[in-house]
Amino acid sequence: MNEPLTVREAPASYQVVLDSLRVRPGYKQTEVGVIPEDWEVRKIRSVCTLINGRGFKPFEWQKAGLPIIRIQNINGSDDFNFYTGSYDKKLEIEPNQLLFAWSGSRGTSFGPHVWTGPLGLLNYHTWKVQVSESEIDRNFFYYALKQLTAFIEDQAHGASALVHTQKWEMEGFEFPLPPTIPEQRVIAAALSDVDALLAKLDQFIAKKRDLKQAAMQQLLTGQTRLPGFSGAWETVLLPDVSWFQEGPGVRTHQFRLSGVKLLNGTNISNGRLLLDSTIRYVSNEEAEGAYKHFLVDEGDILLATSGVTIDKLHEKVAIAQHEELPLCMNTSTVRFKVSNSRLIASYLYLFLRSDVFKKQIGRQATGSAQLNFGPSHLKKVDIPLPSSLSEQTAIATVLSDMDAELAALEARRDKTRALKQGMMQELLTGRIRLV
Prior knowledge:
Layout: E1 5-6, E2 27-30, E3 33-36, E4 40-43, E5 48-52, E6 66-69, H1 71-74, E7 81-83, E8 92-93, E9 98-101, E10 103-105, E11 111-114, E12 120-122, E13 126-131, H2 138-155, E14 162-164, H3 167-172, E15 174-177, H4 181-219, E16 233-237, H5 238-241, E17 242-246, E18 260-263, E19 268-269, E20 272-273, E21 281-282, H6 284-287, E22 301-304, E23 306-308, E24 317-319, E25 327-329, E26 333-338, H7 345-352, H8 355-364, E27 371-372, H9 375-378, E28 382-386, H10 389-427
């Protein structure tokens, strides 16, 4: 398991590059950058108290009592352990309490959270943030902490997904503070409105995704037929209509810093290939020699087969595009090609993303939390097929249109999220003032 990252040097203020441009009238240069003249630079310790949670031991866990609030619960899980013993009252967490996870995953659990669950007791690795509300608006402080979180993550050493900071470090960080509570509240309200829009988009996307999965289940099994189609379907084994190949186990000593990129299961995410950050290559000589028959072709359907959870398996399928080549397969990946005129590639791609495929793999694959499977499992998979290629095409078109609608919604959400990041930078430094 990766060791948590530590911000080894804890500066008392943000590390900023001083503006090379002239500071405009009404603004001043400070340790945290250029801010309005009437704003202050404050330390975290001056506006709040950080109270650490308690490390509840497994033998203390019960099936009833007060829920123990762990990182996974902060992230939305309702799978609680419970406690019935005596405890310090300061460990109690009520709904709407501001928390800060000081050791957690980069971009997700690490940082500030507002508790939305029931009354509970705070576990270790998280601070209860008691805000001095005469000094600062709690909602504004939440967004200031979000901004600080991004800074801490950027400064963390190494590439681990885990980030860690210490109490004394946290208390010493500085941030810009507007002079009045009303101005703080206006800023927080503007950012909260964008968060509300993002939440609605997430809900809408989740609903559309559920509808699409239901449509896939109905259309890819023949339970629902599109208008104009009839006739019997057949069920055939996957190897009867497709060719598939597992990637080789390229050895560590064969890795290079340039050459032909190696495809691993981690490169397949959310239906796309993510190759920009690839650091593993095989030499051009080996790619065109010993591994030539593992070079990916345009249009190959690629599937991750290791370290995948069953509920995310549909996200680990992608189609190789011309601009992503050359690309050499590696371990934990399988590529597919259509091998029979009874099947079209777009239908095969959708089948590999369907619950019909998931259920068959789930029954066979090894691994409890994460799946591990390969050609021996794929050989036993049944694929339901319309006898008409035109019906396969029609099904693929309907589901592809739903995919396009989802992609458009996700693009809108991502654009809104980027807009919010820009707003935070402008509003939390006073570059744009709302009062």
